[in-house]
């Protein structure tokens, strides 16, 4: 078996071996998951035929493709799935919805190739989280919108390896090459220099919608918070103000009861912490 196991660009999804042993591929995957104590991954390997997290909807003249799972050759969403979804879109404009924590960087690269080669227009909408390998998929689209409550996260490629110092150095070289290619994608999208993008990746940077827009990773923010009328807002504020207790006033019986219960709960927490 090859000594190197690469998990590029994600906090938890595993990437496949560079070279597998002669074991059956399914058995090997289950063993890897078991050895790493990732029971949920073993279950997902066994049930890959279930919900893949990739959904496709035809809405008017557009095709909406939803990425709602990790990116992985072994589970979740693969580049092949995305390719098939785009083939069925048949050159119609595509809206790519992303709510993804990332995963296998090479599978994500395959998805980028599909997006770039597609004849129709492809726009991205970040519905929730766009992190790790999912970020440069978004950057490959013609434009990127993001829900006002979403998050955009960039970091260095990561992986793990066993072996001697030569194996470790080789792994470091590979990860650095992967990181630099992704930083180049970010620089092309934002218009910033490579060093600035590498600094963001080194810091493992989470950005809210406003920060992602200011940095140039997204092009617009989708407002999801419904504004209430001014009258309704004022009523809410007045109702809240009426419930504020004047510290100098004599507490009402109900307020006294609530305060006593609060103090009792605090005392119980303190007792438990001391006993622990």
The largest β sheet comes out as: 8 strands, mixed
CATH class of the largest domain, named Alpha Beta
Shape: globular
CATH topology of the largest domain: 2-enoyl-CoA Hydratase, Chain A, domain 1
Helix content: 40-55%
Using only C-alpha atoms, the radius of gyration works out to 25 Å
Task: Look at the structure and name the CATH superfamily of the largest domain.
Answer: 2-enoyl-CoA Hydratase, Chain A, domain 1
SS content category: alpha/beta
State the end-to-end CA separation.
Answer: 47 Å
Number of helices: 10
Could you say what the CATH architecture of the largest domain is?
Alpha-Beta Complex
Domain module tally: 2
Question: Can you tell me the residue ranges where pLDDT is under 50 for at least 5 consecutive residues?
Answer: 1-27, 236-247, 270-276
- The strand count comes to 10
Strand content: 15-25%
- The ordered string of helix (H) and strand (E) elements is EHHEEHEHEHEEEHHEHEHH
**Overall mean pLDDT:** 78
Summary keywords:
single chain, 276 residues, alpha/beta, 2-enoyl-CoA Hydratase, Chain A, domain 1, 2 domains, two-stranded antiparallel sheet, 10 helices, globular
What does this 3D model show about the protein?
The chain is of the alpha/beta class and 276 residues long. The protein folds into two domains: 4-222, 2-enoyl-CoA Hydratase, Chain A, domain 1 (Alpha-Beta Complex); 230-275, no CATH class. The chain has ten helices and ten strands. The strands form two sheets. Strands 2, 3, 4, 5, 6, 7, 9 and 10 form an eight-stranded mixed β-sheet that branches. β3, α3 (79-89) and β4 form a beta-alpha-beta unit. α1 (25-35) packs antiparallel against α2 and α3 packs parallel to α4 (105-117). The chain is globular.
């Amino acid at each position: 078996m090859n000594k190197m196991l690469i998990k590029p660009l994600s906090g938890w999804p595993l990437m496949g071996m560079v070279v597998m042993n002669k074991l059956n591929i399914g058995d090997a995957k289950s063993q890897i998951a078991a050895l790493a104590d990732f029971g949920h991954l073993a279950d997902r390997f066994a049930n890959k035929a279930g919900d893949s997290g990739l959904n496709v909807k035809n809405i008017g003249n557009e095709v909406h493709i939803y990425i709602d799972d990790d990116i992985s050759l072994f589970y979740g969403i693969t580049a092949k799935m995305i390719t098939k979804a785009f083939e069925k879109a048949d050159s119609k404009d595509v809206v790519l919805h992303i709510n993804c924590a990332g995963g296998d960087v090479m599978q994500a690269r395959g998805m980028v190739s599909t997006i770039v080669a597609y004849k129709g227009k492809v726009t991205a909408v970040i519905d929730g989280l766009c992190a790790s390998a999912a970020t440069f998929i978004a950057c490959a689209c013609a434009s990127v919108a993001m829900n006002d409550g979403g998050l955009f996260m960039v970091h260095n490629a990561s992986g793990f390896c066993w072996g001697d110092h030569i194996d470790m150095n080789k792994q470091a070289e590979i990860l650095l090459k992967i990181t630099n290619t992704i930083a180049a994608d970010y620089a092309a999208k934002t218009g910033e220099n490579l060093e600035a993008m590498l600094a963001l990746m080194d810091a493992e940077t989470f950005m809210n919608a406003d920060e992602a827009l200011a940095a140039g990773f997204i092009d617009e923010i989708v407002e999801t918070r419904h504004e209430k009328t001014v009258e309704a807002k004022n009523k809410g504020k007045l109702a809240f103000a009426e419930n504020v207790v004047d510290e100098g006033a004599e507490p009402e019986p109900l307020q006294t009861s609530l305060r006593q219960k609060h103090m009792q709960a605090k005392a119980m927490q303190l007792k438990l912490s001391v006993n622990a």
